[in-house]
Amino acid sequence: MRIMAMMNQKGGVGKTTTAVNLGAALAEAGQRVCLIDMDPQAHLTINYGLEPSGEQANLYDVLCGDQPLKQAMHAIGERITIVPSSIDLAAAEVELVSVIGREGVLKRKLAQVDCDFDYLILDCPPSLGVLTLNALSVADEVIIPMQPHFLSLQGVAKLLETIALVSERMNPALKVSGVVLTMFDAQTRLSAEVVHELESFFDAARDKRLPWSAARIFATRIRRNIKLAESPSFGQTILQYEPSSNGAADYRALAKEIIDGPEEDSGTRIGTEANAAPAPEMAGSISVDVAQCDQSDESKSEPESESIAPLKSD
User: Fold this and answer.
1) Would the N or C end of the chain have less CB density within 10 A of its end CB?
2) d(Cα 58, Cα 69) in Å, to the nearest integer?
3) What are the residue ranges spanned by the domains of the chain?
């Protein structure tokens, strides 16, 4: 079973939309999927047509009560299971403060369940509190949905440092699979610049013992599509609401890419088309303190800080 955390500290980047529709696309491809709504806003829960109330067993009852995780699992169709959220989950940040090992509550609950799934997808809240740490402590991989904007680049650095700390102290198996570009517009120059920055950053980490050393930018771009914004109001995924739309096609392609795995030839990785023309200098760049994150022996003996240099024009 692959356990994937959808994570981004910045809100409004399509994180929940990606969790919802990627799960649906994986199920359509024959995979057994369980989605856990870790966000008190309960948008994933609503998107699947469930009422985010305290009347049914939900994640709050699991984390802060004696409810087994199995009792909070609700089947949605033949291959999709949901662990819903509710506004009560917002209180978990406070109620778990005094609990010993509070960051591992979900991991312990999950270990008590015989999970018969191919994929477990965790939709994290846009914060780095106890709920997100619970998700990272149990996940095998992190997928970062990201809008190709300048401010999104700035948030990625802090996000990766957090993942590095969790990998070092709580979950050594945690890795960053890559970045999914959402709300993508191929006509804008900014999108090409952001892709170039990300590629340079990940390329610089290839030979280092970092959680993102094997990360990639997924070849599938999630294009802007109004149908993706409309589908939650009907309690449907994009595959149900408008199966012939660009949004449905993109998430089907992303699901196939995740199932098939990365390309063997790194030269075919995403972004080559975006780099066909030189990009102008960008005002900002990603900067991560590698001395704090690199786990190799060399970095421990001689700490150093590396960052992506701003893009230069030819």
Assistant:
1) C
2) 9
3) 2-277
Q: Nearest-CA neighbor of 222 among 20, 2, 27?
A: 20
The whole-angstrom separation of Cα 110 and Cα 104 is 10
Strands (E), the chain: 2-6, 33-37, 74-76, 80-83, 119-123, 141-146, 175-181, 216-217, 287-288, 306-307
> Cα–Cα distance between 137 and 145 in angstroms, integer?
19
In one letter, which amino acid is 47? Answer: N
Distance linking the first and last C-alpha atoms of the chain: 46
Residues 6+ apart with CB under 8 A from 56: 50, 74, 84
Distances (CA, A) of 263 to 6, 149, 235, 267, 269: 21, 26, 35, 9, 7
Mean pLDDT of 259-274: 51
Helix axes 130-138, 150-169, angle to 10 degrees: 60
Domain 2-277 = CATH 3.40.50.300: yes
191, 194, 198, 200 alpha-carbon torsion, rounded to 10°? 110
Average pLDDT, the chain: 82
Q: Locate 101 and state its tokens.
A: 């090992």
Number of CB atoms found within 10 A of residue 173's CB? 11
Helix (H) or strand (E) holding 20: helix 15-28
- Say if residues 83 and 62 touch (Cβ distance below 8 Å): yes
Residue given tokens 């402590």 in the structure block? 137
Tens of pLDDT, residues 30-62: 999 999 999 999 999 999 988 887 678 899 999
Q: CA neighbours within 13 Å on the CB side: how many for 235?
A: 7
